[in-house]
Amino acid sequence: MARVDVAVVGGGAMGATAAWRLARSGRSVVLCERFDPVHDRGSSHGATRIFRVAYRDPRYTDLALRALPLWRELEAATGEVLLEQVGQLDHGRSEAVAEVADSLAAAGRPHEVLTPEAAADRWPGMRFEGSVVMSPDGGRCWAERTVAAAWRAAGAAGAELRSRTPVVRMEVRGDRAVLHLPDGEVEADVAVVAAGAWVGDLLAGLVDLPALTVEDEQPSHFRPLDPSAEWPSFLHHRPPADGTDRPLGFDAYGLLTPGEGVKVGGHGTTAACEPDRRTGVDPGRAAALSAYVAEWFPGLDPRPVTTTSCLFTTTPDDHFVLDRRGPLVVCSPCSGHGFKFVPAVAREVERLVSGEAQPEAAWRLPG
Ligand SMILES: Cc1cc2nc3c(=O)[nH]c(=O)nc-3n(C[C@H](O)[C@H](O)[C@H](O)COP(=O)(O)OP(=O)(O)OC[C@H]3O[C@@H](n4cnc5c(N)ncnc54)[C@H](O)[C@@H]3O)c2cc1C
To answer: Where are the alpha helices (DSSP H) in the chain?
Structure first.
């Protein structure tokens, strides 16, 4: 049986970046990923994700601000541009947008409050309602590029990289974790479980997780009518469909992916699914999204150029799960808004592995 200091299960954005941090600190690390290093069956594929420090919940503003220098550190380690701060807008429900402005003010970050009319003059590709806040700290992360770079960096730091290696089962033996692989076992002082939508199956009987919902989210890219127009990233806060206000939620989101168009998602594009039994792009949801784009984006052709399917895994309160039970560190799920925090989550994982940190209260496992 192979023995390592740390075994990381799942090589998406979280697992690969955690493996890099753990290996560069001198630990022996194995990273097991059931698919290829960069694949399109989990949550980290596609070119871009929104980066924002603008959150209604100030804890996430703080975490995004802590992530910023860590993104720059990951860029320096990999020689890649991974984060571009091109700005980000929140608009819609005034009470939600006011909380965003409050979080930014409390953190001392620059932001501008505009009327919908002033915002539409400045960004004529969009329509706005309610209140508008512009945060120049926001922008986009390069998603697949980050995953590929983290795999390379983890390998260069000495991690053993095992793609196409599913962890069939996990076990706690004594005070160590055991991974059952198709070709043998790996014993580790600590196993970091960063299995995204599959975390529930893998940890069943080992760790009590909060109730998880896995959804198939299907955003599309749309062609800008004016190729020279500016597109900050954006969130649209509208009344929640079920009437429950979720402070980490929003109705629709989007951003420019240079070379692909403007990605728009969230408005009626999610549906519960089983991660290994997805049924492909749903024309009904794509049509609802096109109708939303036709209503709110005068600067986009509402016919989608491409539509993708990606897994959102959420806890009931949309917080993360980042905690430790014995030799198991749980680093999933990141509730549909985790990408911007990738290097900060990886640092929290390292602190949990070393026993240096208690998790934030909001991210603790039940019990
Ligand atoms: C459409 C969409 C839009 C999003 N937009 C944003 C955004 O704008 N901003 C933002 O911050 N966040 C956003 N997110 C969320 C963000 O992308 C995720 O939080 C993040 O990618 C999660 O990464 P992960 O590594 O936890 O999961 P994943 O990337 O899914 O990685 C988990 C990995 O574990 C592997 N695995 C699972 N089981 C096993 C096993 N038994 N053995 C071995 N390997 C296993 C899987 O194959 C997978 O590669 C979005 C998500 C989606 C789906």
So the answer is: 13-24, 58-78, 94-106, 116-122, 143-156, 199-203, 283-296, 342-354
> What pLDDT shows up at residue 271?
87
Summarize the confidence of residues 122-148 as an average pLDDT.
98
Distances (CA, A) of 348 to 22, 46, 200, 299: 11, 25, 21, 40
Q: Which of 20, 31, 44 to mutate to test the pocket of ligand 1 (most atoms within 8 A of CB)?
A: 44
**Ligand 1 mutation pick, 20, 21, 43, max ligand atoms within 8 A of CB:** 43
Across residues 243-271, what is the average pLDDT?
Answer: 92
- CATH code for the structural domain at 2-363: 3.50.50.60
Q: What's residue 352's pLDDT?
A: 97
Q: Quick check: 297 pLDDT over 80?
A: yes
Residue of minimum CA distance from atom 26 in ligand 1: 196
As a whole number of angstroms, the distance between CA 141 and CA 256 comes to: 11
Whether 39 contacts 249, CB under 8 Å: no
Judged against a pLDDT cut of 80, whether residue 361 lies above it is answered with yes
Q: Please spell the DSSP secondary structure of 261-286, one letter per residue.
A: EEEEE-SS-EEE--TT------HHHH
Token reading at 166: 């599913």
269, pLDDT greater than 90 = no
Tell me if the bond preceding 333 is cis, omega within 30° of 0.
yes
Q: For residue 101, what pLDDT is reported?
A: 98
Backbone phi and psi for residue 285, each to the nearest 5 degrees, phi listed first? -70, -40
Write down how long the chain is. Answer: 367
